[in-house]
Specification:
This protein has helices spanning about 30-40, 50-70, 80-115, 120-130, 130-145, 150-160, 180-185, 205-220, 225-235, 245-250; strands spanning about 5, 25, 190, 195-200. The chain is mostly helical.
């Protein structure tokens, strides 16, 4: 639905726009027609009362008249044109993806309405996020397996690394803990004189572990996990899927 902004007129609608109904942004009756068109197309059950609409419309048209006088109409270069066109195509793709998501949500809602028990509801929800859940379980399995190759004290130091904290053992020196002493001697952990320890990110074994844990972290923090995944996780594990929480690490990685 084209909106014409002065100095454009109906005669300027050429090529693919020829014959398409359009409205002028500064004409009150056109705005009212556009409103009626939108109410019908969007199936709005309770639109704004006509009297209130007309007050808002008239205030808008009065304001826009002064704004239009200040407008300078620049010539759009070909590079900017293609840049805007690219954004337009990307927007269309995003709209299509959102429509598909809405369709899936509506189908899920219909299934949930027919469910007869809590167990059936849980099964429907799990089926709806099957791919997402399986990906999560696989990432957890790979990350946990990589951590099995190092001692518990190295695992704790890695956990502190993700929390951007130093690991401080309960010992005055490494001699009180053979496990810590071994990790230091293997260059897996680096400790200062006052026993603030951090993981040695330059060690190839640690690099490989971090890479696998990062895949899990990115899934939870950078990808948008669905609300259904979030709720099902909370129900199953009794805590939030928070990658940085101790509950999460104790449940899946330690």
């Amino acid at each position: 639905m084209p909106l014409l902004v002065p100095s454009l007129d109906y005669s300027d609608m050429e090529a693919v726009l020829t014959g398409i109904q359009a409205y002028k942004i500064d004409v009150p009756t056109d705005l009212s027609d556009m409103r009626d068109w939108l109410v019908e197309k969007l199936d709005i059950k309770e639109p704004t009362k006509t009297a209130r609409w007309e007050v808002k419309r008239d205030a808008f048209t009065e304001k826009i008249k002064s704004l239009l006088k200040e407008l300078v109409y620049p010539v759009v270069g070909i590079e900017k044109h293609y840049s805007l066109y690219k954004k337009y195509r990307e927007s269309l793709k995003m709209i299509e993806e959102l429509e598909q998501e809405i369709k899936k949500k509506n189908e899920l809602l219909e299934q949930l309405k027919k469910a007869k028990s809590r167990e059936e509801v849980d099964k429907i929800l799990l089926d709806s996020i099957k791919d997402e859940w399986e990906k999560f379980k696989k990432l957890v399995s790979v990350a946990k397996q990589s951590l099995k190759d190092v001692s518990s004290i190295v695992r704790k130091t890695i956990y502190k690394h993700y929390r951007k904290e130093k690991f401080e053992p309960e010992f005055l020196d490494s001699w009180g803990c053979p496990e810590l002493e071994d990790a230091i001697e293997r260059n897996l952990i680096i400790c200062s004189d006052d026993m603030e320890c951090e993981i040695n990110l330059s060690d190839p074994r640690i690099e490989e572990i971090i890479k696998k844990i990062d895949d899990l972290k990115n899934f939870l923090l950078e990808e948008e996990i669905s609300e259904d995944f979030f709720e099902l996780y909370r129900k199953k594990y009794k805590h939030n899927p928070d990658f940085l929480s101790k509950d999460f690490w104790e449940e899946h990685l330690f």
